[in-house]
Amino acid sequence: MNNNDLSVIIITKNESLNIRPCLESVSWADEIIVVDSGSTDDTVAICREFTPHVYTHDWPGFGAQKNRALSYASKQWVLSLDADERVMPELRSQLIKAIESFANDGYHLPRLSQFCGCFIKHSGWYPDYVLRLFKRANGRFSDDLVHERLILQGSAGKLSAPLLHFSYRNEDDVNRKIEQYASAAALQMFNQGKTVTIADAPVRACWAFFRTYCLRLGFLDETAGFNIARMNARTTYLKYKKLKVLRSA
């Protein structure tokens, strides 16, 4: 990649099941940065097999943690990955060409996600374009506790090869992430001053199911689509129930 070097940044916590294949998929990069938030498994040891740039911090939320990882990057271009994502050879080629072309300041990648063993083509999951490749000087992450976004100054293009995302391995993983995301989202809404009514949790949960399964064609994903719609409904329900508890405290 000549002078257009690439830093890969990843945040982790207890990702020993995911992190090795993730790191293997970007072992060609010029620099890999990992910021861990107190893993109690083998995550940190595995990361140190691939890079000396492994740092430990407390957990301030997704956006702030990714900005910490970004602050350690030293190369001109940055690729932000989650531990459960993989860069396959076709995407690698497109990333390198995009960097060498200097046509844009950042790039959206289509993300193809797996749910309990099935790759999902509908349900609002694909093509799930995510802004992940960018010039370091032109980007930073929002400070959101959850569902953070990359704020890019400049132009953005799109790549066509998918970023693979192994997001939900099994039912236990689904239940854990429902609880995690609902809690973080409730706290974020609370900090933003959002209010909640008695009807919010059930009404918004029903809408989340209908939007995913019907409007976003989740029914075409068959059983997996139904389970994703149910997961979205459950997450939405818990998010507003938890917000109500916070408001009542």
Share of β-strand residues: 15-25%
Query: How large is the count of helical segments?
Result: 7
Radius of gyration: 19 Å
Report mean pLDDT, rounded to a whole number: 96
Number of strands: 12
Order of helices and strands: EHEHEHEEHEEEEEEEHHH
Describe, in short, the structure shown.
With 249 residues, this protein is of the alpha/beta class.
Description of the molecule:
By secondary structure, the protein is an alpha/beta fold. It is built from 7 helices and 12 strands. It has helices at 19-25, 43-50, 62-72, 89-101, 171-191, 200-215, 222-248, and strands spanning 6-12, 31-36, 54-56, 77-82, 85-86, 106-115, 118-119, 128-135, 139-141, 150-152, 156-158, 163-168. The strands form 2 sheets. Strands 1, 2, 3, 4, 5, 6, 7, 8, 11 and 12 form a 10-stranded mixed β-sheet that branches. Strands 9-10 form a two-stranded antiparallel ribbon. Helix 1 (19-25) runs parallel beside helix 2 (43-50), helix 5 packs parallel to helix 7 (222-248) and helix 6 runs antiparallel to helix 7 (222-248). It is globular and about 50 Å long. The model has no long low-confidence stretch (mean pLDDT 96).
Features:
alpha/beta; Spore Coat Polysaccharide Biosynthesis Protein SpsA, Chain A; globular; 249 residues
Helix-strand layout with pairing:
Elements: E1 6-12, H1 19-25, E2 31-36, H2 43-50, E3 54-56, H3 62-72, E4 77-82, E5 85-86, H4 89-101, E6 106-115, E7 118-119, E8 128-135, E9 139-141, E10 150-152, E11 156-158, E12 163-168, H5 171-191, H6 200-215, H7 222-248
Parallel strand pairs: 1-2, 1-4, 2-3, 6-11, 6-12
Antiparallel strand pairs: 4-8, 5-12, 6-7, 6-8, 9-10
